Amino acid sequence: MDNSTKRKEMLRVAEDYLRAAYPYWDRSFLVYEKGIKTKDRVLSIRQEYEKQRAESKSKSENADLTKPPEGFWYLDEERK
End-to-end alpha-carbon separation of the chain, Å? Predict the structure, then answer.
């Protein structure tokens, strides 16, 4: 990485790029931990991310789109 005065900005840009390409990416992937295989850790985090993504997708598919969200009402309706 560049050692100029713009180092922090360049780090932010690089991290933003990695998060855009790999939504489950985390800066902790760059830290070596003895006895823990990085590949296994990344795979487990990716699996957890995919599981959460699938759950949120199924919730949005099962949502009743004919009613407004809880706490909202249409202006021409009486508030109940």
Answer: 59
Burial (Cβ within 10 Å: 0-12, 13-18, ≥19) of residue 15: middle
Q: What are 8-47's pLDDT values in tens digits? A: 899 899 889 988 888 877 787 777 777 777 777 778 888 8
With tokens 């933003």, the residue in question is: 16
What is the spatial distance between Cα 28 and Cα 31, in angstroms, rounded to a whole number? 5
Contacts of 28 (CB under 8 A, 6+ apart): none
